[in-house]
Amino acid sequence: MRKKISVLLIFLLLCIPIVTTGCTQKKEEEKTEEKTEKKEASGTPYKIGAVLSLTGDYSSLGGPEKNVIEMEVAKLNKNGGIKGHPVEVIYKDDKTDNTEAVKAVSQLIDQDKVICIIGASGTGQTLAMKPELQKASIPCVSLAGGNAISDPVDEWIFQVPWPNGVVVPKTLEYLKDKVEAKKIGLLYDSGGFGKDGKDVIEKEAGDYDIDVVSVESYGKDDTDMTSQLTKMKGKGAEAVVVWGAGKAPAIIAKNMKQLNMDVPYIGSHGIARKEFIEGAGDAAEGVVLAAGKIIVPDAYGEGSEAYDLAEEYINDYKDEYGEEPNGTFPAHAYDGIHIIFDALKRLDKLPDDVDPKELRGSIEETEGLVLTGGVFNYSAEDHYGTKPSDLIMIEVKDEKFSELEE
Fold it and tell me: Does the structure show a pLDDT above 60 at 99?
């Protein structure tokens, strides 16, 4: 009996090194695989052009957008890039000017030979770039929210922000069901985004039994809109809808307070950034707008895929730049660059083999892609990507954006 036990012990002792060696070898293989996965990208890059408003009226949009694109590209390249190759982004400043946008996109296409464009920051600049994109057959992922960018569908341009065609119905539904407004005044920015929103509101207001009793415009550099608001007050507007971005919407909030206009101020998604609250001060209190969940992250629902993604993005931005990302606009850049990453990965071609036409097709086949702005689905009939259900109603409460309690 003792002899059998001794033999068994010897056998087990002889097996231990084999098992240990096997485990060690497996761990080493896992480490090697992990190192391979995390090897920094190198070689010929995938060249993408970015047209952003780094100066001019929309510089508060373009600057943070550039920050996010740089951050996400660096992260991608550090972790192997795409098929082991890095992504390179070449930036051009359109100075919030349509002519400069055309010049910028022409240089990126003709001189830099990019395979895709991300931008512009503004609707007017994106629309100005259209002919150049069409002529060169280069796909563009726009960071602007004008409805005219994708309605009618343009073969070469895809939108990231919820366009006016998505946001206006959500806004009008709120005005009808919650405000119960029958008559509204519409004050819009005479630039591309504001005029586009004005056209959509006038077209669709009747479907919600709302009468637009006064329509007034303002220029991006205007500093007093009391005359336009006085006309609206005189026509019995039960709510004032302000469609624009930039500095003016904050001034309008102050003007309404000065005129003792005790009617709701309903804004566009163009004011979904801290500059509006800072500029309007206490006059911002109670302002309502339809926008995405990224400025109220709890609205995603803790533990959801979108919540985890948004939390990582916000924390990465804070770590990189020492402050939280400003409103929805940097998030549009996050979504835009990831839409391009996703399309390139699915295309599965090396940089020198990428045909911009094929990349365009890959972007159009985007399906079920969860990002900060919603779940993106493009098709030949729809280059919006998002839908009204991706939006929530938001109000300014205690100097911050909060989900509106319905």
Answer: yes
